[in-house]
Amino acid sequence: MCSMQRATKNTKQTAAEVYAARYAECADLLKRVTAQLEQHRTRQAADPRDWGFAGDLGRVAEELAYVLASLGDRSAVDQKGLEY
Fold first, then answer.
1. In whole angstroms, what is the distance from residue 36 CA to residue 1 CA?
2. 65 exposed, middle or buried (CB, 10 Å; 0-12, 13-18, 19+)?
3. Would you tell me which of 42, 46, 60, 77 could form a disulfide with 84, CB atoms 3.0–4.6 Å apart?
4. What is the structure's pLDDT at 1?
5. 50 CB-near residues (< 8 Å, 6+ apart)
6. What percentage of the chain reaches a pLDDT higher than 90?
7. Rounded CA separation 69/84 (Å)
8. How far apart are CA 17 and CA 47, in angstroms?
């Protein structure tokens, strides 16, 4: 089952209301990602020889490329040669 369930016809919310709530949720998640990215950079700076930090960002960059593709821009997945 898909983790993002569609609203059924019996719901009292409109599509526009659900969209607005989900848009706000996505905007909040992006702010939190930015904050965590800055904390990650601080931890990496304290241990610059640790390749694990670079690995973390490789995975994050792939996941963000998929997010971007989900919003209609395949350029990042195409550039990375990822299947989408």
1. 29
2. buried
3. 77
4. 47
5. 44
6. 87
7. 8
8. 45
Map tokens 């719901």 to a residue. Answer: 11
Q: Identify the H or E element spanning 14.
A: none
- pTM of the complete model: 0.81
Tracing tokens 């821009």 back to the chain, one arrives at 73
C-alpha of 23 from chain center: 13
For 74, phi then psi, to 5°, come to -85, 0
| Nearest in space to 41 (alpha carbons), one of 24, 57, 59, 63 | 57
In this structure, the number of other CB atoms found within 10 A of the CB of residue 77 comes to 19
Q: Tokens standing for 57?
A: 């960002």
Whole-number average pLDDT of the chain:
93
